[in-house]
Structure formats: C-alpha cells, structure tokens
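User: My collaborator sent over this chain with a note saying "see what the structure looks like." That's all I know about it. Can you take a look?
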Amino acid sequence: MISAGILRNLDPVGRIVIPKNMREALKLKDQTSTEPGSIVEISLVGEEIILKKYNPGCACCYKEDEKLTEVLGIKVCNKCLREFEAASKKLNKMNI
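Assistant: Without extra context I'll predict from the sequence alone. Here is the result:
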C-alpha cells in the first residue's frame, strides 16, 4: 500500500474528502445534480479503514472477472454465460 501522507479531518457528520488527484487516478466520478457519483467500498481491517473503487463481480457466481458480459442489464462472467447458453440450448431442444 502506498501512503500519500495526506491528512484529513472528519467533518461534523463523519465525512472526509478524497483528494481530486486520487479520484482522477481511479476514474471516480463526482456526483452531479443529474448523475450519481461512483460507488466506493468501505472495509474495516484491524484498525485501518480501506476505501476501494467498487467493482461488482458476476451476478451469478460473484467472482470478480474483468471479462464480464452484460446481458439484459445483468453482468455475468464468461463461465456463467456459457452455462446459461448450454441450458438455453437444452430447453430449446425440449421445446420449452
């Protein structure tokens, strides 16, 4: 882990600001009046708070795979996609 040496105070409701150069490096989108901002995953590991750009995995097996395919708005990995295709072929043969 790289320490940038940046210190931030919590505001009255417990928020901090992630520096702009870090948001840009991770391609995190800021919230606008019409679009939501990027989702950030927050984890507690021992006495450390870990912030990570949220990267959802496969909707079926939950594996994080860079090669996700979106089908009807649902992201699935190649393995699950092949399983769905095989099941679909079986159903077609059965005329279901």
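A starting point for your reply to your collaborator: Strands lie at 40-45, 48-53, 69-71, 74-76.
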